[in-house]
Amino acid sequence: MKLLVASRNQGKIAEIRRLLDDTGWLVVGLPSLDSGLEIVEDGETFEQNARKKAYAAAEASKMWTLADDSGLEIDALGGEPGVHSARYCGPDAAQIFRNRRIQDCLVAVPEEQRTARFRCVMCLIDPAGKEKVFEGTCEGKIAYHARGSAGFGYDPIFIPEGYSRTFAELGLETKNRFSHRARAMRQVVDYLRTRVRADTKSRKRGHS
Ligand code: IMP
What we know:
Elements: E1 2-5, H1 10-19, E2 26-29, H2 30-33, H3 46-61, E3 64-74, H4 95-105, E4 115-125, E5 131-142, E6 158-160, H5 167-170, H6 172-178, H7 180-207
Parallel strand pairs: 1-2, 1-3
Antiparallel strand pairs: 3-4, 4-5, 5-6
Helix pairs in contact: 6-7
Bound molecules: inosinic acid (IMP).
C-alpha cells in the first residue's frame, strides 16, 4: 500500500517513512507526485492547516494521504511561533536565523521559564475521501544555545523533557521514540492497521 505524505519537507518525509518501517506501507512525498501542487498554509490552527494540506493532496492524487502540520510553542513567547513556525521571521528566513531570534528573545528568561512543546496534528484521508485527525505533543525546554546537527527546523534548540541534550544532538532514532510526530504517527499506524484488516475482511466477505 502506498501513502502520500503531503509535504515537501524531506526531514519530515524521512521521519514518517522511518515511523512506518515494518508496516508494509510505501511512503512517498509531494515531490514524487510531480503535480506542481503548492498549498498555502494560511490556517489559524495546526488542524486547519493539516486538513487543508491533506485535502488538496488527496484530491490531486486519489491516494491514501497524510498531512502533518506542526510547530513549536514557547510559553515565554505566548505560544509563538506556534502555527507560524515555518514562516517565523518571514517565509524566506533561514532556519539558523529563526533559531537565533528565539535565543535572543529568551536571553534573560531563566531555565524554569523556558518551557515549550512541539505539537503535531495529522490528517489522514482514505481514497474514498474519509478523514481522521490525530494529535501528538512533546514537552521540553528551549536551550541557551543551538546544539547538534541532526534533524531539522528547531531541533537544535529544543531539549525534550527528561534529557539534557537537544533533539539535534539526540538524533533521529531517539527523537522517533517520543517526538510529537512519533506520538501522532503511532495513532495513525494503529488506525491504518485496523482499517486495512477491516477492509480486507469485508473484501473477502464480498467475494465469498
Ligand atoms: P509545517 O508543519 O510544514 O507547516 O512546518 C512546521 C515548521 O515547524 C517546520 O518548518 C519546522 O520549522 C518546525 N517543526 C515542526 N516539526 C519539527 C520538528 O520535529 N523538529 C524541528 N522543527 C519542527
